[in-house]
Design goal:
The protein is of the alpha+beta class and about 700 residues long. About 50% of the residues lie in helices and about 15% in strands. The protein is elongated and about 195 Å long. It comes from Solanum stoloniferum. Its EC number is 2.3.2.27.
């Protein structure tokens, strides 16, 4: 392909799909423009045009013009528009010209207008790897336009060619370019025009330089701001790193200290290691010895178990015999009492009371006086009822015999009667009555709260029993002086059914104001008949006395106010010990409900009172234990520690041996195991088995110890 074909292919065929990017001397501007074009026209062909700005116009020489030898120059000369006049220069000398077509020149001249005074510049740069083509169009006046074409190539003797195209008349005649003489005036004009052009060019370059300088200054300011921001960021990062390094340094120091401590501990451990090894050796020897001892102990235990089983069989047989003999003795005693002791003569009563000596008198009540004495070698309490009445001797004896058949563990047993003197002989209880203990009379000690709750349960049980009797028996005079206590502080109600043995007139007379507090207000106000609800009212007042030990007058009001203000503890009897507040409140509310003025609002003893009060029996100690703890004034000995259950901290009644070797109360250790525990309560080690063995030897020892007191 020839040079002309190459120019045609490059300059004409691809111009529609090519994006031309003009760049000048400023490399920074060129880079930014080129980057924008690459981003915006990524899918099209990019052609970079370098715009060359000459500093001055070329002058012509007077030598004879030569023919063009460059193929590109020839192509330009042949294909340039016909209205252009072209000057070809080489080394700043004119070497060839091409005249414009006169007809085209006149038409171009007619199209020019004063609006073109400003002129335009167009810079195109085409690079093919080894040659550049620059086209500069500069119009400084309406009558003069110029286009320069510069062709560079290493292969051509023509180093540089410039083409000037003018739309006005030619600057010089055709003959002057072939070496003909020209006038001096023409030369001066040309030089003046060239100087003017150079001045404008320099002014333009100065303005461009100033504009670029301003741009460079703005860029420098922007770069300075960016640098400052980067500097601040670096400074902040440096400070953060310094702080981080400082913390790391502190942590390292702490780790060093810990490391030193660990080293010291390690040295101490290493020093103790020989001692510990020797101790381990000794422990292993001791363990072997203990194993041998355990084996011997197990063999001994097996032999003891055999002996224990044999002795237990003998004990069970002996207990059966004892129970059989006791039953025989009891039956004989009952038969003796019924046959020989039930009927008492008046002379026996006079002898027993030493002719009613005041020293034998132990109390005076609503239904008569009470004396103590001994009849037929039995200590009894003799109650002397009023002599006058509407009952005959046979009626009195019949009613008394009916009452004697009513037997309950918490009722005082009627063991004899004297129809002649209207006297009743009861079993004698040495521990006084409930009023003596609540008021601490005659050196009686105050009762513990567990005693008091158990007494309340026993009174409730006895009342339910007598109310369920056929016919129903109403006490009618239930108060603390009629509640007696035996040696083990078991409570028993006396005077039950006595109102049936006296006349209505004697029964209705009541001179004791203290006793009237325990009587049902319904009976006092309306003179009504005694009912079961009357005993419920009396039971409520007694229950309040057990809680507070205060006088009966006003006790209902005091307890009610204390409950409403949430200060029940302020009215509880502190001498009874630390009351369980939950149970105390429950008993207080129950007592107030029993003391309702309207009998219909009072609870039923069997269906309401008993289900509430009976479960409290479980939190109370047995009477034997409580009596032991309450008789400190009698010089009781200290309880042996091996008699005390490790769980309940009380004297055991049914001791059992567990797999850990310790002895516990049967109910306590069974409750422990049934609740899901498989470890020892004492050692917290896992038990080999959950089997329990009764400790008969310890049980007998506890029984013998209790019998001493």
């Amino acid at each position: 392909m020839s040079g002309e074909d190459m120019i045609k292919a490059e300059g004409i065929c691809d111009v529609e799909d090519t994006v031309f990017v003009a760049v000048g001397k400023n490399v920074k501007e060129g880079k930014s423009v080129l980057s924008w074009a690459l981003k915006s026209f990524a899918s099209r062909r990019i052609c970079v045009l370098h715009v060359h700005q000459p500093n001055h116009l070329f002058s012509s020489n007077c030598r004879q013009l030569s023919e063009l030898k460059s193929s590109k120059a020839k192509f330009v000369c042949q294909h340039a528009p016909m209205h252009c006049q072209i000057w070809f220069t080489c080394s700043e000398y004119l070497i060839h010209t091409r005249s414009m077509n006169n007809s085209l020149s006149s038409s171009m001249e007619s199209l020019s207008s004063p609006e073109d005074n400003g002129g335009t510049k167009m810079h195109n740069h085409v690079g093919d790897g080894y040659e550049d083509l620059n086209i500069l169009e500069n119009a400084s006046s309406p009558a003069n336009k110029m286009v320069k074409v510069e062709i560079k190539g290493d292969y051509s003797p023509l180093h540089e060619a410039h083409l000037h195209c003018a739309t006005s008349q030619p600057l010089l005649e055709e003959g002057s370019f072939h070496g003909k003489a020209s006038s001096d005036e023409t030369s001066r004009v040309e030089h003046a025009m060239m100087d003017a052009e150079n001045s404008k060019q320099r002014a333009f370059e100065e303005s461009v330089k100033r504009w670029r300088a301003e741009e460079d200054a703005m860029e420098a300011i922007r770069m300075a701001e960016v640098s400052y921001r980067l500097f601040k960021e670096k400074e902040d990062q440096r400070k953060e790193k310094e702080e981080f390094f400082a913390k790391q340094k502190e942590e390292i120091e702490e780790l060093k200290i810990q490391h030193d401590l660990c080293l010291n501990k390690l040295e101490m451990i290493q020093e103790k290691k020989p001692v510990l090894e020797s101790q381990i050796t000794e422990s292993s020897y001791a363990g072997k010895e203990l194993e041998e001892k355990i084996i011997q102990a197990v063999e001994l235990l097996i032999s003891f178990r055999k002996q224990r089983d044999e002795m237990q069989i003998e004990r069970d047989n002996a207990i059966k015999e004892v129970n059989r003999f006791r039953k025989l003795v009891q039956d004989d005693a009952d038969e003796y009492c019924i046959k020989n002791f039930f009927s008492i003569s008046f002379s026996d009563i006079i002898e027993a009371t030493q002719n009613f000596d005041p020293s034998s008198n132990i109390g005076d009540g609503k239904f008569g006086s009470v004396y103590k004495g001994i009849i037929h070698h039995v200590k009894v309490a003799i109650k002397m009822l009023p002599a006058c009445g509407s009952f005959s001797d046979s009626d009195f004896q019949h009613k008394a015999e009916s009452l004697s058949r009513v037997r309950h563990p918490n009722l005082v047993t009627l063991i004899g009667i004297c129809s002649e003197s209207r006297s009743l002989a009861y079993e004698f209880l040495e521990n006084g009555n409930l009023e003596d203990h609540l008021a601490c009379r005659k050196k009686f000690r105050p009762l513990h709260w567990q005693h008091r709750i158990r007494i309340a349960v026993e009174i409730c049980s006895a009342l339910i029993f007598v109310h369920a009797n056929d016919p129903c028996i109403v006490h009618g005079n239930l108060r603390p002086t009629n509640i007696l206590l035996d040696a083990k502080f078991v409570s028993k109600i006396s005077d039950f059914g006595v109102h049936l043995l006296i006349s209505q007139i004697e029964n209705s007379s009541n001179d004791d104001p203290e006793a009237s507090i325990y009587v049902d207000p319904e009976c006092i106000d309306k003179g009504g008949q005694l009912t079961v609800e009357s005993d419920v009212y009396s039971f409520g007042v007694i229950l309040l006395r057990l809680l507070t030990a205060r006088p009966a007058s006003g006790i209902v009001r005091d307890v009610k106010c204390a409950l409403e203000s949430g200060k029940l503890g302020s009215v509880l009897d502190s001498s009874a010990g630390d009351w369980p507040i939950e149970q105390a409140e429950l008993l207080a509310y129950l007592a107030l409900s029993c003391c309702e003025k309207d009998p219909l609002n009072r609870p039923n003893m069997l269906s309401e009172v008993w289900p509430t009060i009976e479960p409290m029996r479980d939190i109370c100690k047995p009477h034997s234990d409580l009596s032991t703890s309450s008789q400190g004034s009698k010089g009781q000995k200290r309880i042996p520690p091996h008699f005390i259950c490790p769980i309940f901290q009380d004297v055991m009644e049914d001791p059992h041996i567990a797999a850990d070797g310790y002895t516990y109360e049967g109910d306590a250790i069974k409750g422990w195991l049934y609740s899901g525990h498989d470890t020892s309560p004492m050692t917290n080690l896992k038990l080999d088995t959950c089997d329990l063995i009764p400790n008969s030897a310890l049980y007998r020892a506890i029984q013998e110890w209790q019998q001493q007191f």
